[in-house]
Prior knowledge:
The complex is a heterodimer. Chain A is of the alpha+beta class. Chain A folds into 2 domains: 2-54 and 167-302, no CATH class; 59-158, Alpha-Beta Plaits. Chain A is built from 11 helices and 4 strands, in the order ααβαβααβαβααααα. Chain A has helices at residues 2-18, 20-57, 70-81, 94-104, 109-118, 137-145, 162-204, 206-215, 219-259, 267-273, 275-302, and strands spanning 59-64, 86-92, 126-131, 153-159. A 4-stranded antiparallel β-sheet of chain A has the order 2-3-1-4. In chain A, α2 packs antiparallel against α7 (162-204), α7 (162-204) runs antiparallel to α9 and α9 (219-259) runs antiparallel to α11 (275-302). Chain B is of the alpha/beta class. A 6-stranded mixed β-sheet of chain B has the order 6-7-8-3-9-10, with helices on both faces. In chain B, β1 (2-11) and β2 (16-26) form a beta hairpin. Chain B contains 7 helices and 10 strands. The longest helix of chain B has 17 residues, at 171-187. In chain B, α4 (112-125) crosses α5 (141-153). Chain B has helices spanning 42-49, 75-79, 97-106, 112-125, 141-153, 171-187, 198-202; strands at 2-11, 16-26, 31-35, 57-62, 65-66, 82-86, 159-163, 190-195, 207-212, 215-220. Chain A binds chain B through residues 1, 3-4, 7, 207-208, 210-219, 221-222, 304, and chain B through 72-73, 75-80, 84, 90, 92-93, 103-104, 106-109, 111-112, 151-152, 154-155. The site of magnesium ion has 4 residues of chain B, from α1.
Amino acid sequence: MLVTIYRVIKFAWQGFWRNFWLSLVTISIIALASLTVNALLALNVVADSAVTSLEQKIDVSIYFDPDVATPKVKEVQDYLSKLSQVSAITLVTADDAMKEFRQRHARDAAILETLEELGDNPLGATLVVTAQRPSDYPEIIQVLNHSPYRDLVSDENYKDHQRTINEIRLIADRINQAGIAISALFILIATLIVFNTIRVAIYTHRDEIGIMKLVGASNAFITAPFVLEGVLYALCATGLAVAVTFPLLNAVQPYLQDFFTGVPLDLAGYFRENFIAIFGSQLLGMSALNMLGSVFAVRRYLKV
Amino acid sequence: MIIFRNVSKIYFPERTVALANVSFEVLAGEFISIVGKSGTGKTTLVKILTAEERASEGQVVVGGWDITHIRSREVPYLRRQIGVVFQDFKLLQKKTVLENVAFAMQVIGARPSRIRKIVPEVLKIVGLADKHDRFPRHLSGGEQQRVAIARALAHGPKILVADEPTGNLDTATSQEIIELLQKINQIGTTVLFVSHDQGLVNQIRRRVLVLDQGTLTSDEAVGRYRLS
Ligand SMILES: Nc1ncnc2c1ncn2[C@@H]1O[C@H](COP(=O)(O)OP(=O)(O)O)[C@@H](O)[C@H]1O
Ligand SMILES: [Mg+2]
């Protein structure tokens, strides 16, 4: 049994080298299929972190009339903070708001002058509310509008990053769909190439196969090296994909980082953390596909 | 050892009748020649024996095993009991004499120790012990056929089938191959010698089956083959 396994491996290995260039092309195509899948994955990682970081930036500012006293505002803060949808509320008092306003326009003499003329602080207090989830904001605003405090509120500014998020999601989805189509195409091509390579391998080995059949080698023994060759292709292709993916990720990382400023991005880290899951499943998937391709080719051209 | 009972073979779609109602029995240890003009069904008979083709009608038994409806996954086990050689030797050109014989044993799972023991033995039987590391292209036709015979013997088959083994060889070399087949027969292997060469067959003086257009026309214990 052991010696049979050894011989199957040896034959597969010989077959692999006998059509070296064809093997190389096959491996490259499979690796390419693997890379498109990885690119798709990277895109999802980028889109997810962009969306997450934008979601963290969403908040709603509730502006109070300038004549609403701070204790009253605190009351509203207490009221809102009891809502389960609310994750955090910060109070910006009228004085704080003024300070900030002055700072922001410190070099604008005209504005400062107007402020002096007004005398009183024209700004009101502000509550900055952060929700648990982006979808909670409309509810929070609704609760506020149906509460006894609604008359105190002069305005509320729902800082709507939601539209941006939706746009990112939409673009990501589009690219995703295209990516899935391209990946599927590459996987299909890879499978066909494997099928063809095994067909050629069978053709180059037709004399040996003829002898094997003549002297009574079992069908399993005749078939196994070709199936194993398919697995060997998957193994090499995954290795190649690993070798190419990380440098590629590191190369695009700075550009992505420039584009998504403030978004924490670590593509290589993500791939490193999920190495087994990503490349393991690709190896398994490709092996399964290649085995399938080989079995079909063997069935078709070997008539075992 | 071999029983053909009313065996017919029709090739489709041309509906060529290659064998028509052929019956005979070969006992263990016999040396039997099957002769007939070209296209009379000799190779078809060999193919049915090795389960490369199935009989259209009738029954075929080999070594007590009814192979008439043999399953494809059982075929290898039949082939390990029958050694076959052909007119065109079918040797692997990139392997040496020794490797060619060893290959046939490797692919059916023989242990290395057994291969090391058997290969020199069969090469000695065919008289090629000293040429074991030659490649086929550096051998004469007769020598190449001896390698093929050595390979066929490597499994220790009960039956050796030779389908026109001398077809590519000159008379003197053919003579030597016949002598080798006879020697193998004396060691205890049933030999089926297929040929269309009447001179060669007539001087063997053993049993002869004559096929004519798929029909068995003669079966004599010490047969002679006359061209009609
Ligand atoms: N695979 C096949 N398909 C169709 N016809 C065949 C096939 N093999 C042989 N024949 C036909 O069957 C007849 C017997 O052929 P064969 O057994 O090869 O004869 P022989 O070996 O005596 O020359 C011939 O007429 C041949 O053309
Ligand atoms: Mg013939």
